[in-house]
Design goal:
six-stranded antiparallel β-sheet, globular, Beta-Lactamase
Length: 150
């Protein structure tokens, strides 16, 4: 069993029966953040208005409060509904530097029932090139399991 399988099982058990989006986000952010030393900032940005993300539950230092879909890695993930893996944030056009320690990040869309975009999961690392397709697949599966019926 991989570390992600163990993590997914723990998150599944903690989230069983819960339907509140914020409670689920808080639990997932906490479990993910403390599961991997690469994860320097782990949190959610919620869709709160058309084309607008607002900070949700997170672990780590302060995050940006509001991110339009038109800006940054989080905005790109929300706009395209595709996972964004950024090996070097300095090379990403329009990157929003919420923390000077961030070197790489992965941002995943969070999709609920009826194909509704709930928000995005943003994980930053203070290491360059910290994320890959293995992370994308495992994290996408965890998010799908937790939020699919919400």
């Amino acid at each position: 069993m991989s570390e992600y399988d163990t993590l997914a099982a723990r998150i599944r058990a903690l989230c069983a029966g819960e339907t509140d989006e914020v409670a689920l986000m808080a639990t997932v952010a906490c479990e993910l953040h403390h599961s991997d030393e690469r994860f320097d900032w782990t949190g959610f940005y919620r869709v709160v208005a058309p084309e607008v993300l607002k900070i949700g539950p997170y672990q780590g230092g302060h995050g940006c409060l509001v991110i339009p879909f038109a800006r940054g890695v989080c905005g790109a993930a929300a706009r395209t509904r595709e996972v964004q893996i950024v090996a070097d944030v300095e090379a990403f056009p329009g990157h929003i530097a919420c923390s000077s320690s961030t070197r790489s990040e992965i941002v995943l869309p969070v999709i609920g029932a009826g194909d509704r975009l709930i928000g995005v999961l943003d994980i930053d690392s203070d290491r360059p090139d910290a994320f890959d397709q293995t992370d994308a697949r495992a994290l996408t599966a965890i998010l799908a399991e937790v939020f699919h019926g919400i």
